[in-house]
Amino acid sequence: MNVLFDYHELLGIVETEVSDLSENTIEAQQSTYRKNKKKDRKALFFIHQGVNDDAFEKIARAKPSKQAWDILMMSFKGT
Predict the structure, then answer these.
(1) Rounded to an integer, what distance in angstroms lies between the CA atom of residue 12 and that of residue 46?
(2) 21-to-4, 10, 14, 29, 53 alpha-carbon distances in Å
(3) Domain map of the chain by residue range?
(4) 69: which residues sit within 8 A by CB, 6+ positions away?
């Protein structure tokens, strides 16, 4: 999956969570935030597509891709 994330330029999004915006943000910050949230959703979609039903149950409620990825990494370390 790392290769897939790297190819689609999503690896940074999966490794670090997209932080929320503060109230006083400029248009450029809002634009960057929207782009990063879109990338986060795309990464989460790829994660969902790449796991079996058992793994999907573990990550189904995860909102950011980083959270889903961390859950998967922890579950694989335990096996």
Answers:
(1) 14
(2) 28, 20, 18, 8, 34
(3) 2-16+26-77
(4) 14, 43, 47
- The conformation of residue 24, written as its DSSP 8-state character, comes to S
Residue length of the chain? 79
Tokens representing 16 are 């670090």
Cα separation, 55 vs 71, whole angstroms: 9
pLDDT in tens, the chain (79 residues): 889 999 999 999 999 989 888 888 899 999 999 999 999 999 999 999 999 999 999 999 999 999 999 999 998 886 5
> In angstroms, rounded to a whole number, what is the distance separating the alpha carbons of residues 78 and 54?
15
Q: Yes or no: say if 46 and 4 are a contact pair by the CB < 8 Å rule.
A: yes
Query: How far apart are alpha carbons 48 and 42 in whole angstroms?
Result: 10
Dist CA 16 CA 70 (whole Å): 11
